[in-house]
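Service request form, structural biology core

Requester: graduate student, group of Dr. S.
Request type: structure prediction, single chain
Budget code: on file
Notes: please return the result as structure tokens.

Sequence provided:
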Amino acid sequence: MSELTQEYWKEFNKKQALLREKVTQDPWRLTYHQMPETGWLNDPNGVVQFQGTYHLYHQYAPVNPEGGLVHWGHKTSDDLVHFEEHDIFLSPDQMYNKDGAYSGSAIVKDDDIHFFYTGNVKNPGEHDYTFSGREQNTVHMVSKDGFSVDEREVVIHHGEYPEGFTDHIRDPKVFEKEGTYYMILGARALDHRGKILLYTSKDLYDWTYQGIFAEAADETMGYMWECPDFFETSEKDVLIFSPQGIQATKPFVYQNVYQSGYYLGQVDYEEGQFIPENEFQELDYGFDFYAPQTFEDENGRRILWAWMGIGDTAPEYSNPTVHRGWQHALTMPRELTVENNELKQRPLPEYQALRQNETQETLTIDKQAKFPVAHQDAFELLLDVSEMTAPFSITLKEDTKLSYDGEVFRMQHGLSGYGRSTRGIAIEDITLIHIFADTSSLEIFLNDGSYVMTSRVYPKENREDILFEGQGTLSFTRWDLIKE
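Core staff response, request fulfilled:
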């Protein structure tokens, strides 16, 4: 029996209808990024391509733009660019997930999609819900089409997790290798170190605990490792996770309250351990990036989605769309590759279908040059800056400046950042800057995907030009991005 009553759904539908009126009128509503129909969105979940169709699920509180009881939203696409919104796929309607259907992943087996997610329960009483009072159950769910739920059961109850951990164990990611299924779970240990647990199964139903897949060497690498993700490439294995509690040790690293990043390395399958071969690297150096999830599509590409947002940012910065009925979005999907021990992130070529009104220019700049533009709501800008002498800068949107001084690339917002000020990356040289702008977001790819910066930005009135400052020759191609 569902824990959500008819009265709950009646009130839910009433509130969502009112929010739809607000959201549809918002000029900051995104053009080609995926955002909530109404309310709050966070982590991408269970992303999978099934029988040719891409299914994108996400954490979703449809009637409260400031968050709340979490469901799974659902969108589908044939091309990863144009998406259709569907009814809520999963709700916190069982005793084992009554306080939230938290994040999880998907895997295809025998023409079914198998989902694994965390069922969140908060018990009544005097609890801190970290060391007591919380249950986080690992739930297995089967769907024959990606729209209906045909089976659902708890496969690892909260009380069955190993000793030595707080109540925070969640976000199952499942993958297969040579007939064995592996599940990794993010965890917070009692010794205040983030860890990733490993379970194995032969049939996706019965799971056996194997030990610690990866862990922080000490407290400096964070007290909680959320949203683990793993995949193999021909060159290296890749472990992605979102650690909480890392402190910045030098300029231009760990600038956000929480991080998302990766290790390259190899898995010792006999020991059930991931062996990192590099230092932890951040995936994105902007303001708004967290909880990434990857999947392999039917073309063999490894594609990443991430939450274009982050929690607990107050009072540093805020999102003005809360008062307009919605909050947060997802990044563009990015293709991941490992090349010469470097993880590259590149925008998908499918987004070239949105290009219109192409303009190509080569400018010789002596102090400054302005390039007039018809609008700056949604566009793509590809710049070759290999002939520019540092320092140089580019000012666009309303008051966003991108600059490079020969050592650090910076993104600086004015009032349109709503508290977002400056983020930087230490880079020895910059040759290519690839910018994707939407009505209220920026994604900046540097040096063919070696570095990325993502930020929400909320211009009240865009500039009528792009301002280039510095010395040298700069070539660029610009397109309006128009979704039909």
